[in-house]
Amino acid sequence: MSAAIREIRNDRVREHYYEIDHPSGLRILLYPKEHNSSTYAVFGTHYGSIDTTFRVEGEEPCTVPEGIAHYLEHKLFESEDGDAFERYAKTGASANAYTSFDRTCYLFSCTDRFYESLEILLDFVQKPYFTEETVRKEQGIIGQEIRMYDDDPQWRVMFNLLDSLYHTHPVKIDIAGTVESIAKITPDYLYQCYRTFYNLHNMVLCVAGRFDVQKVLDLCDRLLIPSKPQRIERIFKPEPPEIVRSRVEEKLSVAMPMFQLGFKESVTGAGRITTEKDAATDVLLEALAGDASPLFRRLLDAGLINESSFGYEYFEGDGYASVIFSGDSRDPDRTAEEIRREIASVRENGLSQESFERAKKAIYGRTVASLNSVENIANGLAAMAFSGRGLFEYFDCVANLTREDVLRRLEEQLLPQYSALSVILPLDES
Fold it and tell me: Considering 57, 66, 73, 404, which one is annotated as catalytic?
């Protein structure tokens, strides 16, 4: 097999990587960093916990039990001949996997014997093995994992928030599903979802670090099993712009109250936010709540937050988008009110050029610094590929942002009527 290699170069950061549409259907993204001591590889599929109702072109719509993407992630490491971790132990690679709302990724890092480890990765992900017995066994293991997360404050504060923001979108459902939903999983369901979403046309291989591009491609030529292209339609119920409730609390074993304050953003259909809007949001949030912002200093001086736990993120994917502020606080309601007040002030009075420039430089510098990590590069390439973007596109968007771009972005997000507060209180707090 032969494939055309396209070099993707960015003169602004003086970096490059290679993009290959492999004849098998797989998209391959290779980011050589020859002076790096380690190599990191990610083999991922655009398939996550939210993909519970879908239609393959030419077939009827299908709904599967919640948690099946995460279930598949667990099961793929097993084969008739043992498990993939045992094989990795022989090469010395550190292997793992994760399932998010919209993707599942299998990965490893190593300092030597890279090609042997890559062969293991490409082999086991392409060879599913499910039986009634192994599926039943996994139900017990994942059931225990779900029950463990039920008592995890970080997990509960997040999903209580999502349940308060979203009426119908499956992002509100625990990634692992429920004990009831995983009990419905069968080998037939697993094979059906595997055939649909583990089609190579729906997948990407990303490698960053010290390796030879041609050797990787030769390995792919030998090991990849070609897939026929197919169109997958992800089906979501209409999600109203309104939130479900404005406040939710739960008591768990924590020393200090925890909070997440979320602002729901309206997203049309199953679409994604553009890179330009993504970059504008990042700069806006840094200006509003970064560690050099007046809000951060005010909350810190008042003893309402601590430096280590307070943060923010733009939480965005297929059909959903929210800004989330989070942290530990002795008074979560007052902290949330201060955040809302600061947003209202910036909306009314604007953002100073100085604050804008400081935030823009911070985001740009942080993003450039991420290119020093092969782990960040490989996972970033995968995330960007599944969202239909290029890795370097974001750099250019940040560099070209104006203060007016950021203020226009504020007009359509962080609206108080679409916000909700999730609080976890200590068990002994009245």
Answer: 73
State the pLDDT at residue 271: 65
User: Quick one: tokens of 139?
Assistant: 């139900």
- Please check whether residues 46 and 75 belong to one and the same domain: yes
Beta carbons within 10 angstroms of residue 316's beta carbon: 20
- Residue 410, token pair as written in the block: 């504020």
284 in the same domain as 193: no
Residues 229 and 284 in one domain: no
The answer to whether 9 and 16 have CB atoms below 8 angstroms apart is yes
Tell me the β-bridge partners of 321.
316
* Residue 242 counted as domain residue: no
* 222-264 residue pLDDT tens: 999 999 999 999 999 999 999 999 999 999 999 999 999 999 9
Annotated catalytic residue 73 = yes
The average pLDDT across 71-76 equals 92
Q: For 296-341, how does the pLDDT look when each residue is reduced to its tens digit (9 = 90+)?
A: 999 999 999 998 999 999 999 988 999 999 999 999 999 999 999 9
Tell me the pairing of strands 53-56 and 232-234. Answer: antiparallel
Specify whether the CB–CB gap between 28 and 229 falls below 8 A. no
Number of domains in the chain: 2
